[in-house]
Design goal:
single chain; mainly alpha
Length: 364
């Protein structure tokens, strides 16, 4: 039986290999292959330490296979982001554990993330442009869209589940639940959509203005901007001569140099500004609606206690699936995360049901 540490290394090996297989840039694919081999060696070392046969270290977990499926459907940038996020969270957890147990923090805890950048910097086949492209792409991923989908569905489910149970408590599951739940679904979805539209639009307008200023600086003072690029690479630990060479190469393409400068100086990723505010609003509306419709469904074909019980059952299943989906980003245990989500959702619904029941009795 594999322990968690061994399984984590096996999953990383598997995902890096899949990333390499679907990477069109041969030089970057080679780096990913090296990462896969490093993770394989880590898995074998952990296995020997735990007396686990190394010949069976080939089966990835359901989480890794699901991430690979997401990569096939939506692009492997999501997989890279989720993988790096997981390794960062594991490194942070290891550091906190050492601090809690008064064990010295050596700096090796973040090796899994740092090794990738080290390989990119030392690989002679990786040009400055490729390095910048890889870094920019990584900064724009992380499974953010998928994470937003999970959280959007969770907001819709929990908020409308609580509302439905509150009204059901007051009306004993009468037809008023259907009306209130539908109104709550529509109001919540519209609010989420409008909020998302305002957020995306205002961010775009602010960042576009800042990016225009940065382009002016690039046009009027290219020597100074090239020096800034070199200093950025030097700050990452790249030797001065190599940093200057990479900066000079990047400056040959002002569009690429501009993208890197606004990312490093302003914390802006230009690729993220290409999205449509309307599309983001519709996406948010749709995700919230999916979650919010779950507790309301039984009241379309049932009423009274039967509808209430079915609503609780449907919502519990939905909450468990959302909790399970969250583990794609956290790496936590599926059952723990799923049942924790169910518990929190049921507690919230029970509170509103009790308040609704009390108000219903008081009014009657």
């Amino acid at each position: 039986m594999k322990n968690k540490g061994v399984q984590t290394e096996i999953d990383a090996c598997y995902l890096y290999r899949k990333l390499a297989e679907h990477e069109s840039d041969e030089a970057v694919a080679n780096v990913l292959k090296q990462m896969s081999e490093i993770e394989q060696s880590h898995a074998e070392a952990f296995a020997r330490k735990s007396n686990i046969p190394t010949e069976n270290l080939i089966q990835p977990s359901w989480r890794a296979q699901t991430l690979n499926l997401i990569g096939k459907l939506f692009g492997y940038d999501y997989v890279l982001g989720a993988l790096m996020d997981t390794e960062k969270s594991l490194a942070n957890a290891l550091i906190k554990t050492k601090e809690r147990n008064n064990i010295e923090v050596t700096g090796s805890e973040t090796n899994h993330v740092e090794i990738l950048w080290s390989l990119l910097e030392k690989d002679k086949n990786i040009s400055g442009a490729q390095h910048a492209r890889f870094e920019t792409r990584h900064s724009s991923v992380g499974g953010n869209a998928i994470r937003a989908a999970v959280l959007g569905g969770n907001d819709g489910l929990v908020s409308n589940f609580s509302l439905v149970m509150g009204v059901a408590g007051a009306t004993a599951g009468g037809q008023a639940v259907l009306l209130a739940g539908s109104a709550g679904l529509l109001a919540g979805a519209l609010s989420m959509a409008l909020g998302e539209w305002i957020s995306v639009k205002s961010s775009q307008e602010l960042y576009e203005n800042q990016m225009a200023i940065e382009m002016d600086e690039l046009e009027t003072n290219p020597e100074g901007e090239e020096l800034e690029l070199a200093l950025i690479y030097m700050a990452k630990g790249i030797p001065e001569s190599q940093s200057q060479q990479m900066a000079a190469e990047i400056m040959k393409d002002k569009t690429r140099a501009h993208a890197l400068l606004v990312k490093e100086e302003l914390g802006i990723n230009p690729e993220e500004l290409q999205g449509s505010a309307i599309e983001a609003a519709l996406y948010s509306f749709f995700l919230f609606t999916i979650g919010a419709i779950i507790p309301l469904l039984p009241f379309f074909f049932a009423k009274g206690l039967q509808a209430i019980v079915l609503s609780v059952a449907f919502s519990a299943v939905g909450l468990f699936l959302i909790g399970g989906a969250i583990t794609l980003f956290t790496g936590k245990n599926l059952w723990y995360s799923g049942f924790r989500q169910v518990l929190f959702g049921l507690v919230a619904a029970a509170i509103t049901f009790g308040i609704g029941k009390w108000i219903g009795v008081a009014v009657a």
